[in-house]
Design a protein that fits this description.
Blueprint: H1 6-14, E1 22-24, E2 27-29, E3 36-40, E4 47-52, H2 56-72, H3 80-96, H4 98-109, H5 113-135, E5 141-143, E6 149-157, E7 160-164, H6 170-183, E8 187-191, H7 198-210, E9 217-219, H8 224-233, E10 239-243, H9 246-258, E11 263-267, E12 273-276, H10 283-295, E13 307-311, H11 315-328, H12 347-362, E14 366-369, E15 373-374, E16 382-383, E17 386-389, H13 396-399, E18 406-412, H14 415-423, E19 427-428, E20 430-434, H15 438-447, E21 452-455, E22 470-471, E23 474-475, H16 483-486, E24 488-496
Parallel strand pairs: 7-8, 7-10, 8-9, 10-11, 12-13, 12-20, 13-18, 17-18, 20-21
Antiparallel strand pairs: 1-2, 3-4, 5-6, 6-24, 11-23, 14-17, 15-16, 19-22
């Protein structure tokens, strides 16, 4: 089959129909209030659909359906082999519908459609497959109690979990949460971001087709301050898993304390350092990776390597190489298969990023690439790759998460100064280090305060590695078998043997 062209994707777009309702207890329904909100594409400003605007009453209905399904045991007590089969079928359905899902994602948040298909949808399917395969291979434990008794340590599903996901990888982040939640037998209420609800709503239909029972997966589009808050405050929700900003993550901690002390798992912001030593094994490869690590997905990535730390003596040479990557990755039509970089998610995010670019110049950083909105005649939200030099680590652009294609370049004299700059942040999500010295790599990795440290790469390990942060980057880990710990209760059962 020939690869799709821009015209093919446009024709497919024109024939799309959009699921725009909430999904509660196995059915698509309007919001109780009847309210809707406009879902606007950042590609060209067109309104894609009017989507159900859920609120507290809808959350109550969804949580009741989820609790009823959990207590009925049709999923929570199903054999692991059965849950495995359903999740594997869901993975296949995602693969079979990957073009439609990728197109919805591209239209909804402005990422290049080929990236959405080859990266996002491939990752979504892989998540459901990976956790489906894992769940019937996890064993409980027997405690070393001696012959007088038998101590059983077992894992049980938590119950009803709220999953609140961001707009930058809408379906990927949903799958990161849903796959381990469902694999372990929980019921879920998913709240997609209001900027990008379409793929989450569509996924509910595929989940039902795969065999997920009614009430086990519910999807509520709506706003964070209404639907999100109601989910966080609900007295019958056992846990919340949230990915998004540190500011909003703190709200969920407050909601837990004001309600039922539900478990709160957070994957929040980042200001990741990318440390380039003089002895890096390949400066060309490091520069290519540095550019991709900030301009990929238009910089709208929590782990984006937004602080480039370069050892004195190679900074000018290295920065020229990174600038070449930025010049190549110019924004284009996300439906064009050749496009490497798409849009900001909406006007608000465009305004935020442009505000940081202005602040960087006012603080005295040197703008050496980009810094402008482009393609404004399209009605879309495009910002070109932007690089600052001569940045100090106390500047706003070096300390705050911009969530856009903006790179801050700093220099250091030695490993001690590099570590000091890298750790001088409220965040601790991710870090990269480029060096040919294995001893130096080990020693520095141990001292970097981040949940993930990559040596001579910027995105290592994938799903088999746990992902999460230190400090204000979050609580808990996504990915790997460690994600299952968040969504299960540990029970100790002791049996006296006479």
């Amino acid at each position: 089959m020939a690869a799709k062209t821009l015209e093919d994707w446009q024709k497919m777009r024109d024939g799309l129909s959009y699921r725009n309702q909430a999904f509660i207890d196995g059915k698509y329904v309007d919001a109780v209030s009847g309210k809707t909100f406009e879902n606007v594409s950042p590609i060209d400003g067109r309104v894609l659909a009017k989507v159900a605007e859920c609120d507290k009453e809808d959350v109550d209905l969804a949580v009741k359906a989820a609790r009823r399904a959990f207590e009925a045991g049709t999923w929570s007590e199903a054999a692991p082999a059965h849950r495995k089969a359903v999740l594997l079928k869901l993975a296949r359905l995602v693969q079979e519908n990957s073009e439609e899902l990728a197109l919805l994602e591209a239209l909804d948040m402005g990422k290049p459609v080929m990236m959405a298909k080859n990266v996002d949808m491939a990752g979504v399917a892989n998540n459901f497959q990976w956790y489906g395969e894992a769940i019937d291979k996890i064993y409980d434990e027997i405690a070393p109690t001696g012959p007088a008794g038998l101590g059983l340590i077992t894992r049980e599903p938590l119950g009803v979990i709220g999953a609140v996901v961001p707009w930058n990888f809408p379906l990927m982040m949903s799958a990161w949460k849903l796959a381990p939640m469902l694999a372990t037998g929980n019921s879920v209420v998913l709240k997609p971001a209001e900027q990008s609800p379409l793929t989450g709503i569509r996924l509910a239909e595929l989940a039902m087709e795969a065999g997920i029972p009614e009430g086990v997966l519910n999807v509520l589009p709506g706003f964070g301050e209404t639907a999100g808050q109601a989910l966080g405050m609900h007295m019958d929700v056992d846990a919340i898993s949230f990915t998004g900003s540190t500011e909003v993550g703190k709200y969920f901690l407050q909601y837990s304390g004001k309600s039922n002390m539900k478990a709160i798992w957070l994957e929040c912001g980042g200001k990741s350092p990318n440390i380039i030593m003089k002895d890096a094994p390949n400066l060309d490869a490091a520069a290519q990776a540095a550019g991709m690590a900030i301009f990929f997905n238009s910089g709208q990535v929590c782990l984006a390597s937004s602080r480039l730390l370069v050892e004195e003596g190679i900074k000018d040479e290295f920065l020229e190489k990174v600038k070449a990557v930025g010049k190549f990755m110019q924004p284009g039509d996300p439906l064009d298969p050749k496009t490497m970089m798409g849009t900001m998610v909406d006007k608000s995010q465009t305004k935020r990023v442009m505000g940081y670019i202005e602040a960087g110049q006012k603080e005295g950083a040197k703008l050496v690439l980009g810094g402008k909105q482009v393609r404004q005649n399209t009605g879309g939200e495009y910002i070109e790759p932007t690089i600052f030099d001569n940045v100090k680590n106390d500047m706003k652009i070096a300390q705050e998460e911009i969530f856009g294609p903006v790179l801050s370049t700093l220099t250091f004299k030695d490993t001690e100064e590099a570590l000091k700059i890298a750790n001088d942040s409220i965040y601790g999500l991710y870090a990269n280090l480029w060096t040919n010295d294995l001893t130096k790599a080990h020693k520095m990795a141990r001292k970097i305060r981040a949940g993930s440290v990559n040596i001579n790469n910027t995105n290592g390990g994938g799903l088999v590695m746990p992902f999460g942060g230190y400090k204000q980057s979050g609580i808990g880990r996504d990915g790997s078998l460690h994600a299952l710990d968040k969504f299960t209760q540990m029970k100790a059962t002791y049996i006296a043997l006479g």
